Amino acid sequence: MPTEGVTAAVHSQRRWTRDRSALLRVGAVGAGLTLALAGCGTLMPGGNTGAASDLGTQAAAGPGPGVTGDTVKVVFVAVDLDKVKKFTGFKTASVGDQKAQIQALEDWVNDNGGLGGKQMDAVFRLYDAQNDSPAAEEQLCNQITQDDQAFAVVMTGQYQTNARPCYTDRQTLVLDASLYAMSTDYLEEQSPYLWTASFPEYGAFVRSYVTVLAEQGFFEGEEGVGVVAADSPVNRETIENLAVPLLREAGVEPEVSWVDTTDTGTLFMGLEQGAITFRSKDIDRVMFLGGSRMASVFATVAGSQDGFKPRYAISSFDNPSFFVNNPETIPADTMNGMVGVGFHPPQDVPDSQLDLPTGDAETECLGIYADAGIEFESRESARVALPYCDAARLLKLGADGIDGDLNAAAWAQVVDRDGGDFQSASGPGNALGGGGRAAVGGYRVLKFDEALGNFVYDGPEVPFDDE
């Protein structure tokens, strides 16, 4: 680094340390952000070892765990988002009674033939995001696989790297309703146990994200771009082998700032250093690969760095609705010029920009809840209920097509065969069938509209680049 760059970094570091009130102020905000976003769309991508084996052999191995002659046990994990909101004071639409929503899905499944003729026994488990840790998530896995003996788990708010491999080791099907980075390689490592009915495959997202930013002129006139990246196996592999080459092809040199997202302390240390580095190198464009809490907290940290006001890229992984709902938390003008990719309407745009409901799948899901007397004030308030519904619908699609014992491999074979008929209620496109493990297959360009004060979709739905 040139001498002037080092000097700038040192001076920036001294200003940050000297401004104790700013440190305390941002620290308090960030601690709350970490907790709040842990339950409403954060991302801490992880890694695992293991390899997919022949589905046909596994499918012939007999009934899976939690499957009896009459019932199939499915655990739905919920995070108490209203409690989180009360604790932090952050504004977000209430998700309503999650236990009642799960009961409505159980009733709908069983009133329509169950899961392959067996009654779905839905179990509700509330997870305390305030105490999230690898030990807590392993404990939850033990409860679900040993105490509940579940066939499948529908997960929200689970972001530690050990969570998903734990279920794979216990041969428990996972329908992941968390905004969690799952690349094709990672999904194959966890096959046939890991799926998402509501979100895209990570590599396809990254390819499309870089393409959109280039087409929208985000890199225009710039020599480099700052990449704030969660330091974890899946994210590191994707960034080093995919994102970095794509950004160079787009004409910018990426400056990657790796962030340890294990806890609040490591998160802040990494984000602070990233802001210092970007500022010292005059980097004026910043994007995030690794999760929503990083974007919100980074913007707050960067706002305390004198003269550092970069333009930000945005995606559904960055929880756009949080920026709009909590303007007092985010430095002024942070959202101006934001552009990127949106694939999750419940946390992307207000209902004024996209009618509620839109499409057959969303209409079906809201109808299931309405039949149980459950209504939603907005699409954002249904941001948990819709992925729950997606999971229940996908579980039913796979189970109903099995001719023989119900287990994860047999279920996977049916979804590989029939998944092309599935449409998520949580996002556009379809990427299931023929080996796809992530349901959402399309996106729209996402922009912040300064006049409206919210994010908007620009242009039609576009398939993710899966090559």
Describe this entry's structure for a reader.
With 467 residues, this protein is an alpha/beta fold. It is built from 16 helices and twelve strands. Strands 7-6-8-9-10-11-12 form a seven-stranded mixed β-sheet, with helices on both faces. Mean pLDDT is 88; it is low at 1-25 and 40-52.
In helices, the fraction of residues equals 40-55%
Tell me the total number of β-strands: 12
Tally of alpha and pi helices: 16
Q: Structural class, from secondary structure content?
A: alpha/beta
- The H/E string reads HHHEHHEHEHEHEHEHEHEHEHEHHHEE
**Radius of gyration over alpha carbons?**
22 Å
**Terminal residue distance:** 36 Å
Mean pLDDT, rounded to whole units? 88
Strand-helix topology:
Elements: H1 3-18, H2 20-38, H3 55-59, E1 71-79, H4 81-88, H5 98-111, E2 119-127, H6 134-147, E3 152-155, H7 163-169, E4 173-176, H8 184-189, E5 194-195, H9 202-215, E6 224-230, H10 233-249, E7 253-259, H11 264-280, E8 285-289, H12 292-303, E9 311-315, H13 320-325, E10 339-342, H14 359-371, H15 385-400, H16 408-418, E11 442-449, E12 454-463
Parallel strand pairs: 1-2, 1-3, 3-4, 4-5, 6-7, 6-8, 8-9, 9-10
Antiparallel strand pairs: 10-11, 11-12
